[in-house]
Structures are given as C-alpha cells and as structure tokens.
Write a structure and sequence with these properties.
binds coenzyme A, globular, Aminopeptidase, alpha+beta, 6 helices, about 30% strand, five-stranded antiparallel beta sheet
C-alpha cells in the first residue's frame, strides 16, 4: 500500500520524510513525551530520528502505516501510527509539547482510525496507556476504546517496566460511533 495523505480541518497526516528528523528529535527529546511512550529512549538524538525514518518505506502494510502530523500553518507537530502487535494492530501517537491541550490528537486519532478501519480487514485495534497517562486515556475512552486489563510494559525512557492499562477498540463500536 502507498501511504495516503489524510486531511482534516486543522491537520495533514502524511508519510514521514527525511526533513522530519530534526523536529522529531527536538520534540521527542523531552522526558514528558518519551516517558509516556514504550519504545523511545531518553535522551533521544537526531541520529535516532534519522535511523527511524530510514526504516520507513513508501510501500508499507496497512498495519505498519506511520504518519507525520502537520498542523496547518505551523508544520510538524507529532506522530501517529500503527504497528503489528501480538494480538493485532496497535495504534500509538505523540505530540510535541507546544501542541498539547488543543484537541489536536483527538482530531488525528479519529482521522487515523477512520482510514485504518476503511482500509484494513482488522476487527479490533489495540492500544493502551501507562497508568499515569490520563490525557491519552481520556482520548481513547472518549472514542470508544475499552480497558481490557493491565500489563507490565518496558518503558525505554524510564528504563523500567511500568504498569500499562491495556485497551482495545472494535470495528463495531467505531461504526456505531460514526453513524
Ligand atoms: C497524550 C497526548 C497525545 C494528548 O494530545 P492532545 O492533543 O493534548 O490531546 P487532546 O487535547 O486531543 O485530548 C486530551 C484529552 O485529555 C484530557 N486531559 C488532559 N489532561 C488530563 C488530565 N491530567 N486528566 C484527565 N484528563 C486530561 C483533556 O481534557 C482532553 O479531553 P477532552 O477533549 O474530553 O477535554 C499528548 O499529551 C502527548 O503527546 N503526550 C506524550 C506522549 C503520549 O502520552 N502519547 C500517548 C501514549 S499512550
């Protein structure tokens, strides 16, 4: 699949490109961001961002699609993407701190899930949050994700296992929400 460009009222979701490395490194090298993510080390360097972007290809599987989030008029703001987990596709996301608290990620998650469920055959999308991440849990619960349990997940930035609230969203709930 060739990565699509998804446009919303305030955002453009598009394939990551080499020029994103600098803002990615800038915004991800922030413990308040990385400490809420499982797989981002701290500190986080430009070379980490460049290496990650090199793993992204124009032609990817739907459940491996990663989008850079551009805020119209402002430029690179963060990231939203899918990766294949043990049970099925997993959605993850982050936003540079200057962009928090304006409903931007809610807008991005809705757009990404609309695209994903329309494109993939997956009946469920998995996600979750570290137990202290109230903002991310608020986004997920407001969009129809339900809590399915707790697990321990390694947080690279914290160099520790952290209690994780596991969540999932079914296609049925998403369709019902959209009609
Ligand atoms: C989590 C994150 C993506 C939120 O992005 P955002 O654009 O600020 O989120 P939104 O504004 O769309 O929505 C946040 C919701 O959480 C709520 N919220 C924010 N802080 C909260 C808190 N401390 N307690 C409870 N709810 C909170 C907001 O009120 C909002 O809900 P509402 O729309 O019903 O009012 C952003 O803070 C971030 O990137 N954090 C670091 C990385 C991260 O946590 N990624 C997700 C990992 S699971």
């Amino acid at each position: 699949m060739i990565m699509p460009i998804i446009e919303t009222e305030r955002l453009i979701l598009r394939a990551p490109r080499a020029q994103d490395a600098e803002p990615i490194a800038h915004y991800l090298n922030d413990f308040d961001v990385a400490g809420n993510l499982a797989r981002v080390p701290h500190p986080y360097y430009l070379s980490d961002a460049e290496a990650w972007i090199r793993t992204r290809h124009a032609d990817v599987e739907v459940d491996d699609a990663n989008f850079s989030i551009d805020l119209k008029g402002a430029g690179y703001a963060g990231h939203i993407g899918f990766h294949p987990g043990l049970d099925g596709p997993v959605i993850g996301y982050w936003l540079g701190k200057p962009f928090w608290g304006r409903g931007i990620m809610t807008e991005a998650v809705i757009a990404a899930l609309d695209w994903f469920f329309a494109t993939s055959r997956a009946p469920i999308v998995y996600s979750g949050v570290f137990h202290f991440n109230r903002a991310s849990l608020a986004i997920q619960e407001k969009l129809g994700f339900t809590q399915t349990g707790r697990s321990q997940l390694l947080c690279l930035a914290r160099e520790a296992e952290v209690e994780h609230i596991d969540t999932q969203l079914t296609l049925g709930v998403w369709k019902a929400r959209r009609t």
